[in-house]
Amino acid sequence: MKTLVxxxxxxxxxxxxxxxxxxxxxxxxxxxxDARQFYRGMRIGTAAPTDVQxxxxxxxxxxxxxxxxxxxxxxxxxxxxxRLETLFITHDAVVLTGGSGLFIKALLKGLDVFPPxxxxxxxxxxxxxESEGIGVLQAMLHEKDRPYYELVDRSNPQRLLRALAVCISxxxxxSEFRKSASASRDFNSLLIGLHxxxxxxxxxxxxxxxxxxxxxxxxxxxxxxxxxxxxxLQTVGYRELFSHLRNEISLDQAVTLIKQHSRNYAKRQMxxxxxxxxxxxxxxxxxxxxxxxxxxxxxxx
Length: 301
Hints:
globular, Histone, subunit A, Rossmann fold
């Protein structure tokens, strides 16, 4: 049976570098499961692979989709399964890499089934968001479903709106509908997690944000200004700089917030991945150990 080797972990941990090393070792290609790198025009702020890195190994789902297009976890799973079917014709293993836990889960295990939601509830929540902002949605979710509140990307209004609509319409917590059973897949799954101590990870994050600014992140955000309301851009790095461009905060304040929000995001990512019992963890610099482990697992399958 074919194998999907997944390299997962928090933002700035070094997934791109490790995944390229693994893909070269296995003579295969990479599928990106980074929900932000799918979109065109966001390469700096999402730390998408550079042109040099893309030339080393073929990547899929990087810089492919217009920012005006909605691309859900279900859409990704469907498209990625189709892409894998083709890739597995000529490759015994394919590498998956990313930090978007929901998208990775959708591909590996399938999506949860939720009850229908009331259109009236959805309209009321959207009106509340438009009038009072994302803070009120965060507070409501904290009250109605604390477990999911701890996991969800709280800067993404669509995720908050969806969860609240389910909570209010069903009278139950959104997290109660999240299943543990997995969908059947016709490939083996090998999960490699990258982690390091918090202090080092936060230093990596701060250094990455500084490098993004030096590479022209502000200009990238300015070029996307007409799309500021699109869901794809309701994310760390873009949201803060849009606030700066609206003269709501200074550039220094925006950069400080990007670093803080990136650290918060990394913490939520680790909370998500640590719940997965079948992940084997490595330091990102231990590429020899990672390759040896993968070789052993593939040999024994």
